[in-house]
Amino acid sequence: MFRNLPVTFIMITVVLDAMGIGLILPVMPELIMDVRGSDISNAALWGGILSAAFAVMQFLFSPALGNLSDRFGRRPVLLVSLFVMALDYVVMALAGTIWLLLAGRIVGGVTAATHSTASAYMADISPKEKKAQNFGLISAGFGLGFILGPVIGGLLAEFGPRAPFYAAAILAATNLIFGFFVLPETVTPEKRRPFTWRRANPAGGLKYIGALPGVGCLLLVFFFYQVANMVYPAIWAYYTQAAFGWSPGMIGVSLAVYGISMAIVQGSLIRVIIPRLGETRTVWFGLIFNAIMLAIIAFVSNGWLLLALTPLSALGAIVAPALQGIMSQRAPDDQQGELQGLLSSINAVGMIITPLMMTQVFAIFTAPDAAIFLPGAAFLLAAIIMLVSWAIFATSLSRNPTAADAP
């Protein structure tokens, strides 16, 4: 029983990383208006700046934390990050100026970058044949945090706009205490690798990880997959309101359905799918499936049909853990943290690029003077990008047919 406690700690950490994004969303407009003394329009502008700052910090610091964990171990990086995270939430709860809130989001983006270290820990304790399945647990934890964050934040908002921050601080501190007692170190002395700044950044990580046999192409596949897949959180609320007139409550229900479905796929179904298909076939078919589902969603004309398709679309979430599993198998033990840090940075790039791109496409095809009214146009673009990801993956297999279990 006790040997499962470290995995429980890792799962809670990932959930907290994801909740850190969604927990404060319901209260940010009111909090920003309070500290700025401004209206909702100005609050929305600053809200965008705060969100972008969070994502940029994740992009910049994920490789650094991954490399630090390869040098000093997973345990100290995870525990120190949780300590700083707890303090950061307290600072944001007490913030009286927008600049202190911005500083809090910057620090929060750095501490949330421990997603990479958590993934590296999971890689350390997983046998080769179960890496992808256990990465699915990490993704399921992120999906659970995606669901719980806005729900808990909305409920706590009844006690004031600062209450969710205090709650997040308590959760982080509690998990820190739990991890202090149950988390063993997995990086043995022979696995430790010297820390160098030239590798502890996205460009350096790309250079060294991309040089591993067969990994460079997979990083490109992962990038296009993330850009396409981020269309869901980036555009869903706007799309469903414009196409079907959904209320905020209905939008929340649909997002919860998607999040729960994704957690089931990555936490359970992937343990059936990958052993039967193998990682390579899972990625190959998963990318095609995602492209088809995105194209269908783009042209759905009935809101209830879309809701029925939502759990099915979540099945495409098998791609990311399978890709992580393939790349983790090709990386040596002393580069697992570096690899996961780079993947977290690529994910953060998707969080930056996709909202900017997809909201512009949505605006063009829903404008009053639009030549074609198509609220789902962003999903059609995402389907095309997903096909690009599949084409790159298929090309890499044709060049190296012995790479794995290719169809």
Q: How does this structure look, described?
A:
- There is one protein chain.
- Helices cover 78% and strands 0% of the residues.
- The chain is mostly helical and 407 residues long.
- The chain has one domain (2-184, 198-399): MFS general substrate transporter like domains (Growth Hormone, Chain: A, Up-down Bundle), CATH 1.20.1250.
- The radius of gyration is 21 Å and the shape is globular.
- The chain starts with a helix and ends in an 8-residue tail after the last helix.
Describe the structure using short key phrases:
mainly alpha; single chain; 0% strand; 407 residues; 17 helices; Growth Hormone, Chain: A
The tally of structural domains comes to 1
The helical percent reads over 70%
SSE string: HHHHHHHHHHHHHHHHH
CATH topology: Growth Hormone, Chain: A
User: Which range does the strand content fall in?
Assistant: under 5%
CATH superfamily (homologous) name? MFS general substrate transporter like domains
- Report the total helices: 17
- Mean pLDDT figure: 82
- Based on CA inertia axes, which overall geometry fits? globular
**Sheet with the most strands, sense and barrel status:** none
CATH class, named: Mainly Alpha
The stretches of 5 or more residues where confidence is low (pLDDT under 50) are: none
